[in-house]
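Lab manual, section 2.4: Encoding a predicted structure.

Procedure: take the sequence of the chain (288 residues), apply the prediction step described in section 2.3, and record the output as structure tokens. A sample record is shown.
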Amino acid sequence: MKKALLWGLVFTFVMAIPQFISTAGADDVWKDWNLVKDGALDTSKWYFNDRKMDDVSIVTMSIDGERVKFEHRPNTDGNSVWLQLIKKPECVKGIQAEITMGTDLNGHFRGRIGNVAGAYGPLKDYAWNQVSVRNRLSENDGDRVYGAVGLEDPLNDWEYLKDLIYSGFNNPEEVDGNTYICTMILDREKGKIKYTIEGFGTVTYKMPDEIEPGWETFWGIGSRSNDASGSGTVWFSNVKVLLDTECGDDTRPVVKKTVPEHKEVNVDPAVDTFKIKFDESMLSLIHI
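Recorded output:
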């Protein structure tokens, strides 16, 4: 029988760890989560999750005072770029951000807050959650602001399956050159998703099925070009995050090292002991 060892003690119920660090019932609080520190992107909180075409970034990122500026180059059809939240993403229930759309937007273009809502439905497909400001969606519909959850198949190259939610607000005549305060909240415990765009209102949905945490914790603020001419500029600033205050360093131990190493391949099948080293004692998490 294979065994798992926590360095310093043997822990028989390794697979039960998630239920001991559940954040159910926690109080939540909004906190400033600045993008900029000392004139540069605050890399202790955010990661510039870039995309490249022909080994060249599709976006030039720069700091404009307290704002982060994305300048998209053309001919980057269907590509997204993110400021990905990396500090305690598992403790975040929502993000609020100020998104300013440039006057140089060309083609179909959007600025947005995005989140992997989790695994949803009987097949545990990928539920992608977003609140967006979008220009020139089509010649007939024009610009729009909306919140949406779409279902994708992670086992089939993220094939789009269907919209679970599409919340269109009263649409602006033109998003170019305007600033929008957007908020998105995901409360898995209550099964609720909430979108707010200042000046346009709030929409709250109660999901009919459970939203499970899934295999990835992603929160980000970013932009996307949707056609070959989708170039333009967007700024992000005044970011706040809704934190679960019972989810923190004291209640969510961090894995520091494993033996075999994480993602190690060709592990000898005869190995019957796995070691996991955390950044704190695990004695307080053992419930019998």
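Check your result against the sample. DSSP finds one helix and 24 strands in the chain.
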